TrEMBL record:
Keywords: Oxidoreductase. It comes from Nonomuraea zeae. Belongs to the short-chain dehydrogenases/reductases (SDR) family. It comes from the Bacteria. GO terms for molecular function: oxidoreductase activity, acting on the CH-OH group of donors, NAD or NADP as acceptor. InterPro entries: NAD(P)-bd_dom_sf, Sc_DH/Rdtase_CS, SDR_fam. The lineage of its organism: Bacteria, Bacillati, Actinomycetota, Actinomycetes, Streptosporangiales. GO terms for biological process: fatty acid elongation. Pfam families: adh_short_C2. This is SDR family oxidoreductase.
Amino acid sequence: MLLEGKIAVITGAGPGLGRTLAKLLRDEGAAVVVAARTAATLDQTAAEVPGVLAVPADLTSIDDVQRLAGTVIDRFGRVDVLVNAAFPGSHRKNVLDMSAGDLESWRKAVETGGYGTLLACRFIAPHMVARRSGSIVNITSMSSRLGYAGRSDYAAGKAAAHLLSHCLADELGPYGVRVNCVAPGWIASDVLEEWMRTRAAAEGVPFEEILARDVSAMALRRIATEEDVARAVVYLASDHARAVTGATIDVNGGQLFT
C-alpha cells in the first residue's frame, strides 16, 4: 500500500471526488481525516468510508482551520499528507450579467478556493516542517489555465490555488515538504451528464451526439473518472514522488496539453 502508516487530511471531503479521495487514501493504508463545512455531508462520508475521522470546519475561518489542525495533532501527533479539494459549485453566470447576489457568490467561491487552501496550508504545514517531511496536494483544474464564459468564479479560485502551490513549493522545499497540484478536466458524473443533456436539448440533437463530440476532443477518447483523479493524488502523496514538487499532473484524458 502506497500510503501505509501515513496520516492524511482531506479538506472539501464532500460528495463526489472528496469522498472518492477519502476511500482511496484509506484503502492505500492512510489514516484519514476528512473536513468539510457541512456536518451532514461529513456524516455521509463517514458512513460510506468507515474509519475516517470527520471534523466539521469552515475552511475560510482561521479559528476552524486551527481547530482542525489541533484535532489532528491531538489524535495522531503528526500530519504526513494534506489534500485540499474544497470548492463550491459554479453558478455559471457571465460577469456582466451578475447581480449583487451573484457577485457575493463569486467572492465566496474564490475565497474558498484560494484563501481556504491558504489557511489549510498555513496551519497544517508547520507540523510537516517540524518533521521535515510531508506532501501537500492541491486539487486545481484545467480551468486554472483555461477560462470559459460563465465560469470566472471557478477559474479564478482554482488559479489562486494553482499559483499558491508554486509559491509554497518554493517556500517549503528546503524543509522537505513537497507541494503539487492535480488538475482534473471534466470528471464523469451525473452533473456532467446533466450539462451535456441540457446542451443537447438546446441544440435539438441526441445526447449521444454531444457526448461523442466532446469525447472526440480528448486524445484518450474517454472522460476521466473520480478514481483517475484520486490515483494521481495518491502518487503525489506517496514516497514514489519524493523528488516531485511544484508540479501539476493533468488528469483530463488529453483534453488540454500543457
